[in-house]
Amino acid sequence: MWNGNWRDRVWSQLDRQWDMIVVGGGITGAGILRLASRLGLAALLVERRDFAWGTSSRSTKLVHGGLRYLAQGQLGVTRESVRERERLLREGPGLVEPLGFLVPTFANQSPGKRSFAAGLAVYDLLAGKWDHRYYQRHDFRLLAPHVDSENLQGGFGYYDAVTDDARLVVRVIREAVRAGATALNYCAAKGLLLNADGRVGGVVLQDLHKGRTAEVRGDIVVNATGPWSDELRADVGGKPRLRPSRGSHLVFPAWRLPVAQAVTLLHPTDNRPVFVLPWEGVTVAGTTDLDHDRPLDEEPQMTHEELDYLMTALRARFKSLDLRGSDAIASFAGLRPLVGDESGDPSKVSRAHSVWEEKGLLTVAGGKLTTFRVMALDTLLAARRLRPDIPSIETDVPMLDAGVEDPLAVDAISRAAQGRLSGYYGAEAASLVGLARPGELELIPGTPYRWAEVRWAAGQEAVVHLEDLMLRRVRAGLLLPDGGASLLPRIRGIVQEELGWDEARWQEEETAYMQLWEEAYSVPTRTKAGPCQ
Ligand code: FAD
Fold first, then answer.
1. Best substitution site from 228, 275, 521 to test ligand 1's pocket, by max atoms within 8 Å of Cβ?
2. CATH fold match for the domains 6-55+166-241+349-386 and 98-156+243-339
3. What CA–CA distance (Å, rounded) separates 527 from 530?
4. Mutate to test the pocket of ligand 1, among 45, 59, 192, 372 (most ligand atoms within 8 A of CB)
5. Which helix (H) or strand (E) holds 246?
6. Cβ of 394: how many Cβ atoms within 10 Å?
7. What is the CATH code for 98-156+243-339?
8. Is the pTM of this model over 0.85?
9. pLDDT digit string, tens, across residues 215-229
């Protein structure tokens, strides 16, 4: 599908009238492409960097309703989200998995125990289940022994879900392509084409890998560029509506910040929730929520202030661990594509999504990873208003295809691990295992990924640069110290075989990856200035 000279093949097929052109290869664009493909539309998705390069590889990885949004009165967002969470758990086992959450309660803390109890009751009712409970102090300490015990009363336990955000995007896009859609990464929409009547009728594309450009016509053009949505809208005179807000996370080795399930802390200075969750064998802590005042074409990165902010919460609530910023092995920062309201606290801006039309351009922004299916449905509804001949779509349409039903019949991998592969790669899991060379079904040390996944990604998953592989296909760049530099000698062999890179190309890619990792994924304490604690 995406091997050999696939980019040239796709490029040579662009010159046709598309039913729908989707700009942006994050989770929003991916979901729209998938549903368009279910309707049999001729649909094209273009992404100017890598698939999931934007916010959709930098989220907290939760598939959740967002208790916080409930507290802010965003009942509709919460209801929609918990229902989508339940659906994704059903459709994507192995990729979307239940995750237990613990919320400690302390004496003299506000909101107190009663407020949490009421919030969790509503949360569960919205999802149509009753899955939370209160633990007395003694029991709570057994579950979360490192949470500070001073003034601890006990705490609540409830369930949400967790995923690998970038893998979810790639799975959805690949399933769309298998169903007949077309997708190209490193291909930017440089501008909009207007018809004689002044309405949008296509896009000017530039292949950033090969430098070529093309004018491509489409009946419907969807702007799914997340925090960058205002850029394309400028071509139709759209006034800025996006308010990008940055959120950053720290990644700790699990042994340094051990949590068996996620812990929700209330930050001691502003009472915002900070999540500490087990993910892919490490512990992720975040997030911040700040207006992003850096240029949007720069790679987002965590600042010293954000590091201090997160460390303040972790040091206060996990006192006995005596954590330092330098204990973290990586960081990552993403931009929330919030719509509207320029004033006030960004963490209070609505997480609801919006779909709107300007001179034929449909823009869809806001929302959450969790609600991407609903966003896609609403976008197709809006597209149908512009082009009534687009078939209608059932609102309970599935997003993910069925995975591999039978175990992969491979003795080298446990049943649980086969379930994971099936979740991550859907029906392609069997092909991935089939392409593995001897020894490649072994785990990459320190990660839940196998060497076979590196080979599969390099050869089959549209990897253009080393960063695509290290940060988004297998997440070694987030899970291992120094961006997984120690793996590079073995990865080099696999990548050179699969992608045909010569020595010079490999060196160029390795240097660029390590530089990017230092700039945007390392921890500010280690590289950008002296220790902060
Ligand atoms: P993006 O993922 O940013 O995708 C937009 C894409 O468009 C980018 O890849 C970009 O390169 C591309 N693009 C831009 N301009 C062009 C162009 N001209 N041509 C071609 N391509 C272009 N949600 C949850 O449900 N759970 C969470 O735990 C969660 N945590 C979050 C934590 C943080 C810190 C942040 C910032 C958000 C979080 N969210 C979470 C929200 C969620 O991640 C986002 O709503 C979602 O990922 C946005 O997806 P998107 O596709 O709209 O945007």
1. 228
2. no
3. 8
4. 59
5. strand 242-253
6. 8
7. 3.30.9.10
8. yes
9. 999 999 999 999 999
